[in-house]
Amino acid sequence: MAITVGALREVADGERRVAVTPEIARKLQGKGVRVLLEHGAGVAAGFPDAAYGEIEFGDASQVLAQADLLTCVLPPSDEALGRLREGAVIVGQLRPHGAAARIVALGKRRLTAFALELLPRTTRAQAMDVLSSQAAVAGYRAMLIAAEACPKFFPMLTTAAGTIRPSRVLVIGAGVAGLQAIATARRLGAQIEGYDVRPETREQVESLGARFLDLGVSAAGSGGYARELSEDERRAQQQALAEHLKLVDVIVTTAAVPGRPAPKILSTAMVEGMKPGALIVDLAAEGGGNCELTRPGERVEHAGVTILGPLNLPAGAPLHASEMYARNVYNFVELLLREGGLAPDFADELVGKTCLTQGGEPRFQH
């Protein structure tokens, strides 16, 4: 019999994405896989049940009882895990860091779970990299939020009432989210700068038409992430950055490392030195924020500066975010399929290093 791949309607507050889109459902069917979705699973993302064609639908209980492989955007609830058929496989963003209770719940049902956040950052893994695809959505939306909240126009405007100068925008962190934020600010007509402690990002920042802000501190690391700065380096960076921030209208911060608290880059004193009406959009709010004053999910006013800490930005553009996410998931699931069945090769680096539990036994080392 064909294996069954299932997906539920996401139930986390504000979550509108879906792990299986109509495009991916058809691709799975083309592989001889049976697809079973919960009624309404894709509605919030812009995919009504009718868009899936001949795909089967059922209630959550039916999906959990029949799925050999369950795909998800965010971790299923403990209740859902307890009802999932024993020995099944889960693929999705499972938030493996600090997930001791979830790992216990996976063990009780002897589930094999793959947390896509753990994928090695290699060329071969790019097509499965959910962190990158969703970060691109977050960077785009962060800049739109900044443009909406900024008390100034982003572009230069020449009007009968005079010429209005463009806003000065600084993006801190030139990863996927930061680069997408830079590109979006450029499209909106802002005067844009990008900063990163990794000097190798200069070329990428400049290729988008932005100026690279060089503060004289390098923290080139491994695996695509920056190394931790020494105390002297951090002090020099902070001093140079504080002076520059006095000129900036909008800051979007994007510095984050999965599983670790976001680095504090903007101190209270630095915020107090900024011009009245300045705006900070802290994309690292879920990890505690890059700014000392950030409150996740809230708007803070301090010394005339506004600090926003938006959460789960990809869910705000659910259709395209879901399309990219579902393609990532499909590309990973292909690694698990062999001759119409599930046969994960744990010797494969992408499979082995992404595995959170195997048959209920923990494999992830914190």
UniProtKB/TrEMBL annotation:
Stored SMART domains: AlaDh_PNT_C, AlaDh_PNT_N
**Alphabetically ordered keywords of this record:** NAD, NADP, Nucleotide-binding, Translocase
EC numbers: 7.1.1.1
User: Which function does this protein serve?
Assistant: The transhydrogenation between NADH and NADP is coupled to respiration and ATP hydrolysis and functions as a proton pump across the membrane.
Give every Alanine dehydrogenase/pyridine nucleotide transhydrogenase NAD(H)-binding domain span.
147-309
Its UniProt entry gives the catalysed reaction(s) as: NAD(+) + NADPH + H(+)(in) = NADH + NADP(+) + H(+)(out)
- UniProt-listed Pfam families: AlaDh_PNT_C, AlaDh_PNT_N
| Residues covered by the Alanine dehydrogenase/pyridine nucleotide transhydrogenase N-terminal domain | 6-138
Which residue windows are coiled coil? none
Query: Could you tell me what this protein is called?
Result: proton-translocating NAD(P)(+) transhydrogenase
Q: Does the keyword Calcium apply?
A: no
Q: What is the lineage of its organism?
A: Bacteria, Pseudomonadati, Pseudomonadota, Gammaproteobacteria, Lysobacterales
